[in-house]
Design brief:
The structure holds two protein chains of two kinds. By secondary structure, chain A is mainly alpha-helical. Chain A is 53% helix and 3% strand. Chain A is built from 45 helices and twelve strands. In chain A, the strands form six sheets. In chain A, strands 1-2 form a two-stranded antiparallel sheet. Chain A has a two-stranded antiparallel sheet with strand order 3-4. The relative contact order of chain A is 0.04. By secondary structure, chain B is mainly alpha-helical. In chain B, helix 7 packs antiparallel against helix 10. The longest helix of chain B is centred in the middle third of the chain and has 32 residues. The N and C termini of chain B lie far apart (88 Å). Classes of the chains: A mainly alpha, B mainly alpha. At the A-B interface, helix 1 of A face helix 5 and helix 11 of B.
């Protein structure tokens, strides 16, 4: 029956609904925390069996702490105690506070109570009881007696007690000994929560988590990786080596994002040092000062050495704060009130993200955002934990400061209040190498660059007594490099040390030198040096577990001491090796190119510009702009100059003694980018654009020819990180003209490089590769044969080239249309500007060819643009920045960034034409000669050049400004430095006297004498300060003038004036010291502008005469705009020049 | 003996004896329905049941004809109303409170998680079942003839269901909500703007602002808990009422005895009857003239009580079991909304992923023109379909083109939704679901 079917369904469904509702009801009545509560009550019952105190009367449930707020707001409930009920009960603590004979608390040197094992600990008692119940002797006796009931009951009791130690919730097994444990001491108090009563503060204040949840995953979710399913199971790169025995506890937590079942269900709980991020939410912190600050800032202090309780308890946070600076995080990331970086994501509120997200983002930045340009620093767990502690504390405003205070601080910061590291370096320290190197080591540079030249007290034994001979020292160094190659892993270090322990102790010893820099840095910034070398951190702790176990097993104190001593020895050995390693290979991480020789081949101007705008000279550089004062950049430039020379000489010394070895030279200079095996994959290559050339690519090298290879090494490839190894810029203070690699050495290097190629014997020079003797004459002949006609701008005289173009096809086709003309071939110098090559050398072409300006007609450029968009953009990108769709899959060489000004300015049009016609063998750039006509190639080149016109003008403006003003500023600064020393010494004297006067034991006479002396000094000081002020004023005046010219230049730039006017403007800037000359030029410019205005006005009258129409109105509007622009330009120029005149006159008076 | 209107006055004893039944009768205007009169009266005179017909055709009770889809959808709406009201007792639509309140509430209050889960799963199921119900109606040709406009109302209800679901999505104020709504409202922003407005007026009307924030939250809240449920509830009433007025559910004509006739021409002079009366009960047909069904009870009709009501109860219980079962899976509550940390990809709720997928190809066409065309097209089906056959038959042969087109359309949408859900990763790029490169945070 149909009705019955419904009846049956009704009954079944009714039961199902009831069942499901029953399931939910059961979970409400018997929540997860009941499991813990039952365990707890059972434990209390067990405890009463040996203390004979009655168990606490928990009739229903376990006490929950309800915290009524003072302001009568809603009560804050902290339910953590529902599970962690034992937080305050001493019998759940494995330790207890020690009391001496007088009943006083025993405290250690820091004032913290000393703790001793607690024999009344419930867990200890349970273990005892279980041991007694399972005692084999008693059991055997019982078996003999045949008392099976008792055996079984003893076993059951032991099992029951054992099961109290774990709680099974769903399929997770939790360790109840940890859930039910007394909270450890916080700081110097004697009872837990003396300073933070749990009934007032609750748990979540520090631990985060969701205090109202009553199940584990709701209350705090997973804490350890073993406790949850992992979201991502794809391949992950290996970050740090694993050593489960010795790795800190932090290494196993927060490694992965939990899978769907748990993710984001709760606020993750903070454990370990991460809790410190909560401390600083309420406790005020002091700014950390850094060395190298100017004299008008607080005195130079070392790193954290404060001993206050809060400070000590937030040690990891402070280490994280230091790391945020030393690892250069602040250069890319913004934290309101601290760091201004704008490259990476803002971290002001990073504290609200999840710890595993933070950890993953640091160790594997590309996990979440594949396009991230953040390098992986391979930080050690120790550093990671500290850095995460710091980042988790970033929650915007905190309770430690009032809202107003916070607002004021942020506003001051936004207005430009300088952070310690942003302050100027005092002039006396600009040339102080030690300070600059400390800046390099502690303020972020070394996070990515590895610089040689740092010295430590550790050294080879032979250095200890007298100055060793070169050979002896060389041998030692070779020995060290063989044992510890640069890219050595932590586990390998351990193995090598294990094997060569005695040898190492023989060779490498402490205290070879005195007061070396590394020791000084280490003293001021503890752990700073190690933070860059995770492999040495790994090695240093690799024996901890082993020796600690030995010490624990030891039966006599001597044995114990011996084990501990050996551990210390091990750590000292690793420390010594690290310091020698730094001396051999350099200080810092190897992520960016080594700046070892930058001071030699880069001009100071280049270096300063690179600091200010890293992408300007090296395309797609990931180096951030550090928020340093110019004086700090000067100091760093100076440091690079001095160290560069020193490092160059050190290597040259080896060549002198041992003869030049191209292979060694390659490993030394080139392998950082081109790779040890020449495949273009050196350690630095990851973040370099373009990809370092694969020098195993025979086709590329053969077609490049030795001549060009030599040229590239000698002069570098501008616009890329490839440095000019054979160049020495002239703007150095102590210019000596010795390059890193001499011409002869480069020859040998290239020969060596080509010798390894297959078919090395038949490789020929430039004369045998057609690409390199394709000359302008050939181009013009080709045009002639193909029938193309290159149109120039209309000239007053009639030109024979001004015919309509016929080649309209834009797609590459196998056979360009050919219609030979009968006209004769145009001479080269009518189409090309032939300039002598500014770079002289045997391998360089003598002349450079540039297409004449008059051929840059809109039509030609438009043709080139269309052709580019259709055929080239797929690799070179629509914006010609080398980021086309196909670029992603090229792994040997990336398409060139054609708007890279530095690069394109070193390539003449002929070279571009050659590369288009013949392609670049060994890369994806195919020969386009068969698919394009010569005319099209010319148009293409014109289009590519036109892309950088404005940029070029901008660069020219910047260069002119730099040459005239920056050099003036540097000159003033140098004068000031010379004068400043007097000021500094006087200042010191004054301080000294001030100190002496504060001495309470001073007698009156002396005091009067001192006072007099101080007056004198003060007077002198004032004079000197006034002098110093003059320098500062002069510099400011120059800066003002620079700004005026900059704004003039920018106005002319945006008005897109013609070439001659632009050149005049540049000339004015360069001649600014000669007002007569510049006024003359200005007159010329104004005349041109006036002429243009006049012409426009005439046109305006003519246009006004036309019939009224919207078209006419638009034209009129256009003309008006143009007139206004040229008038504005004129006014700006004249008033600007006048202002400059006034300023420079003032400056002259001041002198 | 005093008497009133011919009835002798009852004694106190009699009065007290009769009092309970009198009390019951004062509430229920009928006796226990164990006879036909009371069976009809219980429907007739009961406020809650009176939108049913007194009798219904056996065919309507065939569970394999309707599949109970309409009843399930209605049950879901009832469940949603019930659980939604419970949620409203706690929820505060404030940017800084909403998330925390939801989090605290679900973790501390008895049955809170269950109600939240039920509300969420009912909402998702309702969207699904609305589509299933629509498909059933299409495949059985039930939108034809007199039922044309009821189909249009049904389509409106479908749109309302989607909007209800969508507005509710924002309320937990977590990352999922925030970015799904951002995407959803962006899609709305692809509709052409009114000239003269700086920001897209459609989007601004929806969000009460230019971005998702407090204004949007309160707007969505009021839409979700007051405005849209009222309209939807009313339209559901109309939808039901029209079923009855249009002659009950569709069914094939009776083979043994044709349906009775009904008035086809109304005038004061003459009434003529024609086959087609589907109901046998109603004052409207008590008009002058001959009636072919005199003395004959309606064939194949059974009383609503208990037959139809029992069937409805089964559908309701089935729905409850489904929803409760799904409630074992917890509704997500992700990180609190963080406007500065967009998720990649940001995905709209699943039922809008088809739209989002289309938007990925072309914003205006995929996000506005085609969806609007789809809704209007669906509403126009009864007026475009000229085939009179197939009413009351599953997959009638004569309708093969219509069935093919509809199936194609629905499959296309399903494929788009599946692609949008499982095959789209960061930057809306194509990913294979098994390659583990889903958005990670």
């Amino acid at each position: 029956m149909r009705g019955d079917r419904y009846q049956i369904a009704l009954i079944v469904l009714g039961i199902a609904v009831t069942g499901l509702l029953g399931y939910f009801l059961f979970h409400e009545i018997y929540p997860e925390y009941r499991i813990y509560q039952e365990d707890y009550i059972a434990l209390e019952e067990f405890r009463s069996t040996y203390t004979h105190e009655p168990p606490p009367a928990f009739a229903i449930g376990v006490k929950q702490i309800v915290f009524e707020r003072e302001d009568k707001g809603p009560a804050a409930i902290d339910r953590c105690t529902s599970c962690h009920v034992a937080l305050q009960l001493t019998h759940f603590s494995p330790t207890k506070i020690a009391y001496d004979a007088d009943g006083k608390i025993v405290r250690n040197a820091e004032g913290t109570p000393v703790q001793v094992p607690n024999e009344n600990n419930v867990w200890f008692k349970i273990d005892q009881k279980i041991a007694a119940l399972t005692d084999s002797k008693v059991n055997e006796q019982l078996i003999q007696q045949g008392d099976w009931t008792q055996i079984n009951s003893r076993k059951a009791e032991a099992d029951r007690l054992g099961s109290l130690k774990v709680a099974v919730v769903d399929d997770q097994v939790y360790d109840v000994t940890k859930v039910l444990a007394m909270h450890p001491l916080i700081g110097k108090e004697t009872r837990p929560f003396e300073f933070h009563p749990i009934d007032e503060y609750g748990c979540t204040v520090c631990h985060s988590g969701n205090g109202r949840g009553l199940t584990t995953d709701k209350a705090h979710g997973p804490v350890f990786d073993g406790q949850y399913g992992i979201d991502f199971e794809g391949p992950t790169p290996e970050f740090t080596e694993i050593d489960p025995q010795n790795d800190p506890r932090f290494s196993i937590i927060f490694n992965h994002k939990p899978d769907d079942s748990l993710v984001f269900q709760t606020t993750p709980i903070l454990v370990g040092s991460l809790i410190q991020s909560s401390c600083v939410q309420c406790h005020k912190q002091k700014d950390v000062n850094l060395p190298g600050m100017s004299s008008n800032t607080p005195e130079i202090t070392s790193g954290p050495t404060k001993t206050s309780d809060v400070y000590r308890l937030t040690k990891n946070f402070h280490r994280g704060q230091q790391l945020f600076i030393s690892q250069a995080c602040y250069a890319c990331h913004k934290i309101a009130g601290t760091a201004r970086g704008g490259v990476g994501p803002e971290l002001t509120h990073e504290g609200s993200t999840y710890p595993w997200f933070l950890k993953e983002s640091i160790v594997w930045p590309q996990a979440d955002l594949p396009t991230s340009t953040m390098p992986n620093y391979t930080l050690d767990h120790v550093e990671l934990e500290d850095l995460m502690t710091y980042l988790l504390a970033q929650k915007g405003p905190t309770k430690a400061t009032s809202a107003i205070e916070y607002k004021v601080a942020i506003q001051e910061w936004e207005a430009g209040k300088k952070q310690p590291w942003e302050k100027a370096v005092p002039p006396s320290q600009v040339h102080n190498l030690r300070d600059s190197m400390t800046i390099f080591a502690t303020q972020g540079c070394s996070a990515c660059h590895r610089l040689e030249g740092f010295e430590s007290n550790v050294g080879y034994r032979i250095e200890q007594n007298n100055k060793p001979s070169f050979d002896a020292l060389y041998q030692e160094r070779e020995w060290f490099k063989k044992l510890f190659p640069e890219e050595i892993r932590g586990s390998k270090i351990v193995k090598v040390i294990d094997k060569h322990k005695d040898e190492i102790d023989q060779h490498i010893v402490n205290d070879v030198r005195k007061d070396s820099l590394l020791e000084e840095i280490d003293a001021k910034f503890p752990d700073n040096i190690e933070s860059f070398y995770s492999n040495f951190r790994f090695a240093a702790r690799s024996k901890n577990a082993y020796y600690n176990e030995m010490a624990n097993k030891a039966t006599t104190p001597e044995e114990k001491q011996k084990a501990l001593n050996e551990l210390k020895e091990w750590q000292d050995r690793v420390h010594r090796i690290l310091y020698v390693y730094i001396q051999e290979y350099g200080f810092g991480r190897l992520i960016g190119p080594r700046p070892n020789w930058s001071g030699v081949y880069r001009s100071d101007e280049w270096l300063m510009e690179h600091f200010h705008n890293p992408g300007g000279h090296v395309a797609r550089s990931i180096m951030p702009v550090f928020p340093f004062d110019d004086s700090k950049f000067y100091a760093l430039t100076y440091m690079l100059d001095v160290l560069g020379k020193r490092n160059r000489n050190a290597v040259q010394e080896i060549w002198q003694h041992k003869g030049f070895n191209p292979e060694q030279a390659f490993q030394l200079y080139c392998s950082q980018c081109h790779g040890t095996y020449l495949q273009g994959n050196g350690p630095v290559a990851t973040w370099i654009y373009p990809i370092p050339k694969n020098l195993r690519n025979a086709e590329f090298l053969r077609n490049l020819t030795k001549e060009n290879a030599r040229q590239s090494i000698m002069h570098g490839v501008k616009g890329t990180p490839m440095p000019p190894w054979g160049e020495t810029p002239h703007d150095k203070e102590n210019y000596d003209g010795i390059p890193v690699l001499s011409h002869d050495q480069i020859n040998k290097l290239v020969d060596w490089l080509y010798r390894a190629l297959p078919g090395a014997t038949v490789i020929k020079g430039i004369q045998d590769v057609p690409k390199w003797h394709y000359m302008p004459e050939d181009i013009l002949e080709e045009i002639h044969h193909e029938g193309g006609i290159l149109k120039s701008k209309p000239k007053p005289t009639s030109s024979k080239l001004s015919l309509a173009t016929q080649n309209n096809h834009l797609y590459a086709s196998a056979k360009p249309l050919v219609t030979p003309t009968t006209e004769s071939i145009t001479p080269v110098n009518e189409v090309f500007d032939v300039l002598p090559n500014p770079i002289k050398g045997p391998d360089e072409p003598k002349q450079m060819y540039f297409i004449k300006q008059e051929y840059y007609t809109p039509e030609n450029i438009q043709k080139g643009k269309t052709f580019f968009a259709i055929n080239c953009a797929v690799c070179h990108g629509a914006d010609a920045d080398g980021s086309g769709a196909r670029a992603g899959i090229m792994f040997d060489a990336k398409p060139r960034m054609l708007i890279n000004l530095d690069w394109i300015n070193t390539r003449d049009d002929l070279r571009l034409l050659r590369s288009i016609k013949y392609g670049v063998k060994g890369t994806a750039m195919t020969p386009w000669g068969d698919f394009t006509s010569s005319l099209q190639r010319l148009q293409l080149v014109m289009y590519i050049r036109s892309l950088t016109f404005e940029k070029e003008r901008r660069e020219a403006l910047a260069e002119a400004l730099y040459q005239t003003f920056e050099s003036a500023k540097i000159k003033i600064e140098h004068e000031r430095i010379a004068e400043y020393e007097k000021l500094a010494t006087k200042q010191k004297e004054s301080d000294e006297i001030l100190n002496q006067r504060q001495n309470p034991t001073l007698n009156d006479l002396d005091a009067i004498a001192l006072f007099k002396k101080q007056l004198e000094i003060n007077a002198e000081l004032k004079k000197l300060q006034a002098r110093d002020q003059i320098f500062i004023d002069r510099k400011l005046s120059v800066e003002k003038q620079q700004l005026i010219f900059l704004s003039i230049g920018n106005s002319f730039l945006s008005a897109n004036v013609d070439d001659s006017t632009w050149k005049s403007i540049i000339k004015i800037i360069k001649n600014y010291n000669d007002p007569k000359e510049s006024n003359l030029i200005a007159q010329e410019i104004t005349q041109t502008l006036d002429a243009a205005t006049k012409k426009m006005e005439e046109e305006r009258v003519a246009t006004q005469g036309k019939l009224a129409s919207p078209n006419r109105d638009a034209e009129l509007h256009d003309i008006d705009l143009q007139i206004a622009t040229s008038k504005r330009l004129k006014n700006q120029l004249l008033s600007g020049l006048k202002e400059v005149d006034v300023l420079s006159n003032e400056a002259k008076e001041n002198k | 003996m005093a008497s009133f209107q011919g009835k002798p006055r009852e004694s106190w004893g009699e009065y007290l004896v009769n009092l309970p039944s009198m009390f019951v009768r004062s509430i229920f205007r009928h006796n226990y329905p164990n006879n036909d009169v009371d069976r009809s009266e219980i429907v007739f005179k009961n406020f809650f049941l009176h939108f049913h017909p007194v009798k219904c055709h056996k065919h309507s009770l065939d569970p394999f004809y309707t599949l109970g889809l309409g009843a399930i959808t209605t049950s879901l709406f009832l469940l949603l109303t019930f659980t939604g009201v419970i949620l409203m007792f706690y929820y505060i639509p404030a940017e800084d409170r909403a998330y925390e309140i939801m989090k605290d509430w679900q973790d501390t209050t008895p049955f809170a998680m269950m109600f939240r889960n039920m509300h969420r799963w009912s909402a998702h199921m309702m969207v699904l079942f609305v589509f299933l119900h629509m498909s059933r109606v299409f495949y059985t040709g039930s939108y034809k003839g007199t039922r044309r406009f009821n189909w249009v109302i049904g389509c409106t209800l479908m749109v309302l269901t989607l909007i209800l679901s969508f507005t509710g999505y924002l309320l937990p104020w977590d990352q999922l909500a925030f970015w799904a709504i951002t995407v959803g409202t962006n899609i709305a922003g692809y509709a052409p703007n009114l000239p003269g407005f700086e920001y897209n007026v459609n989007r601004v009307m929806l969000l009460a602002s230019t971005n998702v924030g407090q204004d949007a939250l309160i707007r969505f809240y009021v839409l979700h808990v007051a405005f849209l449920p009222l309209i939807t509830g009313t339209l559901i009433g109309v939808h039901f009422w029209r079923i009855r007025k249009d002659g009950g559910l569709t069914r094939p004509p009776d083979q043994i005895r044709p349906d009775p006739l009904r008035v086809v021409q109304r005038s004061d002079t003459k009434e003529s009857f024609a086959p087609g009366v589907k109901r046998t009960y109603g004052l409207m047909e008590l008009v002058r003239g001959t009636c072919p069904t005199v003395d004959k009870g309606p064939y194949n009709f059974v009383f609503t009580w208990p037959n139809l009501l029992r069937a409805e109860l089964v559908a309701f219980l089935l729905t409850t079991v489904l929803v409760l079962g799904l409630s074992l899976i917890d509704a997500p509550l992700e990180e609190p909304a963080n406007p500065s940390k967009p998720t990649n990809p940001s995905k709209a709720p699943w039922y809008f992923l088809g739209l989002q997928e289309m938007v990925a190809y072309n914003a205006f066409w995929g996000g506005v023109a085609i969806p609007a065309g789809m809704v209007l097209g669906l509403m126009a089906i009864p007026y475009l379909d000229r085939n009179p056959h197939g009413e009351g038959y599953w997959f009638h042969r004569s309708r093969y083109i219509a069935i093919f087109l509809y199936t194609l359309f629905m499959t296309w949408q399903a494929v788009l939704i599946i692609i949008g859900t499982y095959f789209r990763g960061a930057n809306w790029g194509w990913v294979w679901p098994w390659t583990e490169n889903f958005a990670r945070h």
